[in-house]
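**Sequence, structure tokens**
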Amino acid sequence: MKSAFVIALAALVAGASYNTAEAGKKKTKEVKKAAEEVVAPVSLVTGSDSLSYAAGMMMTNGLIGYLQQQLKVDTAYMADFVKGFNESIADTSDPREVALRAGRQIADQLKQSMLPRIKADFTDTPDSIINTLLFRGFADALLGDTTVMKADWAQNFFGERQSYNNKVKAEKQIKPGRDFLAANATKEGVITTPSGLQYKILVKGEGKVPQPTDKVKVHYEGRLIDGTVFDASSKHGTEPASFRADQVIRGWAEALTMMPVGSKWQLFIPQELGYGERQAGQIPPYSTLIFDVELVGIE
């Protein structure tokens, strides 16, 4: 299957083609018939001819796998791929052909990238995206057809629904952490600060309390409320982590500027004192975080 594609593609680059009588032996009848429509004899006369042909062949290295895996091309239809390739690289000034090619490119981008993203935005919300109507709205807007909606109304409506659905989704993501903190606040030894930070003293230190601009040394382990460990100082070596007390998330900064050196605390950090709506590595948006923190010293 590979040889027919290589020959056809290289023929396009060199401005000529190759007789497929021998190459077609390994093809199905359908592919061989299609290939015969796009190939013609090739003549390599000069060094540049041969160089161009060789360059075309070389540039296909790894392409078959990419077409199969990323673009989902069935290699039984490589002649059709080459036909489309030939049409796209043809030197034409026909504005209709230019527009057709551009339309296909934008359609591919819409289906492969833009559509999945916008559908994901409305996952787990009261609304959802219907492909056929999205495509129709897209086309009507480009044609200036305002029979169904005017452009400014559509933009305002979409913005309102997106904002509402984002709030609904955020509330669903925040609720488990909020419920956890409400229950945790009633447990023995748990202290809640005015900001909402909760902590429990595991080991009481007697050393100096860091100032916000002090560089501290700590051992720590961070978990989600389901017990998933997303980070720990032990993952980065045997030495404690080192950073300024005011250059971490707000929950950490508040705790570090209350802890005497030698202390070990368990922190329960609400999402607004953590990463909030941001995804941070393994930490999902709006996550309540639990940290075991040992303040080893101040540099």
Confidence is low (pLDDT under 50) at residues 1-36. The chain is about 45% helix and 15% strand. The first strand starts at residue 190 and ends at 192.
